Every structure is written in C-alpha cells, then in structure tokens.
Amino acid sequence: xxxxxxxxxxxxxxxxxxxxxxxxxxxxxxxxxxxxxxxxxxxxxxxxxxxxxxxxxxxxxxxxxxxxxxxxxxxxxxxxxxxxxxxxxxxxxxxxxxxxxxxxxxxxxxxxxxxxxxxxxxxxxxxxxxxxxxxxx
Length: 137
Fold this sequence. Notes:
It is a single chain. The chain is an all-alpha fold. The chain has one domain (3-133). It is built from six helices and no strands. Helix 1 packs antiparallel against helix 3 (64-78) and helix 5 crosses helix 6. It is elongated.
C-alpha cells in the first residue's frame, strides 16, 4: 500500500467516524424530541422504559433508519478488510437521502420535518450532518 493510498484510507475512516458521531448526536436530539411528545401524552418514562420503547414502540420506529446507518458505519470501521470507496460513497449517499425533511414524504421525512420545525437542537445537529455530507469542491 502506497503512502498516498494509506493517507486516503485514514481520511476516509476519519470521515466515517465524524459522520457516525454527528448522526449519533442527531439521533439523540430526535430521541429527546420524540420522548417529550410521548411523555406529554402518557407520562414520564424511565431510561429503561425508554430503551424498550425505542426498540419496540411504533412511535419510535422511524428513528431506526439513523440507527441502521450508524451500525453500517460501525461495521465498516471494525471490518477486517477496509471498506471500498464505493461502499463508503454509497453510505454517504444513503445518509444524504435520509436526512431530507418533507411534509408529504415517508414517515421518517415527515417526522424529521416536524422535529426541524420545533426543535433548535435538531436544526443544529441537522446542519452538522449536512455540512459533513456536502461534497467538497
């Protein structure tokens, strides 16, 4: 492996780690928002109850899309063989497509749009992820 290739791999993996961390922050902000909505209707829940809700409750299911992306990144970062450039680019394309809010889109897009309209922390986390996903010129 040439030093140029090695440097490119290091940058690629740093970019993946950065995306992972920013997606986790976005997920945490969205989870906080969804928890607030849930608790307004059904009352406070403990951390353990929240974990169970995130795993099993329909109201939280839309957040699984971000969780899946984070898991894919984790698998790429821990794999014995380095991820191909195509695999990394496809993952970034998937992330770009996912974080497109819409009033009339799928469940994720609609709930994401709503969270962006009401929560400044979600807006800031979205901006961080979007900046990382914007191709450099």
